[in-house]
Amino acid sequence: MRSLKDEAEFSAMRKEFKDTIRSLGEPDLVARLTQEVFMSHPIPHWVKSREGKMIALNQAYTDLFGITLEEYINHYDNEVWDSNTAAKYSANDQQAVERGVMRATIEIIKDDKPMKLDVVKWTIRCCGQVFIAGKCHG
Predict the structure, then answer these.
(1) Please, which residues bridge with residue 131 across strands?
(2) Across the chain, which distance is largest between two alpha carbons, in Å?
């Protein structure tokens, strides 16, 4: 948890960032930059609705799991993965919602070999809604 001093510093940095972006005269720049950072990040990231519907995932995720955006976006885990995998992912999502953050190690099969991944999921509150964000790395 961040301290009050950290919160004040974070708020000041956020204001400075917003002021810098405004000075560039590009109103959509922050959204575009954020999207590009998310999509191009070399570590798999994703965002789901509180109910577990996939909203966004990046290229690293699709490369790692061998799934396309079209196959997963707007779908639930049980529509994409086998029932055991989907149940584990959903349980981890609910842990993140209940606790604010969840950490786990999962095993997947990649190129016919088992691979362990460290997974972190956390909640994001935005526009009056709760979302589940996550990342994983091996």
Answers:
(1) 49, 124
(2) 51
Residue-wise pLDDT for 71-86, tens only, equals: 999 999 999 998 988 9
In the structure encoding, which two tokens stand for residue 38, read together?
Answer: 């998310």
Nearest 5°: CA angle at 131, between 41 and 99?
Answer: 105
User: What is the token pair recorded at 48?
Assistant: 């789901």
Residues 6+ positions from 124 with CB-CB distance below 8 Å: 47, 130, 131, 132, 133
Contact between 117 and 137 under an 8 Å Cβ cutoff? The reply is yes
Strand segments (E) across the chain: 45-49, 54-57, 101-110, 113-126, 129-137
Give pTM, 2 decimals.
0.77
Q: Is 85 helix (H, G, I), strand (E, B) or coil?
A: helix
120-127 CB contacts, 8 Å cutoff, 24+ apart: 121/92, 121/93, 121/95, 121/96, 122/96, 123/96, 123/97, 124/47
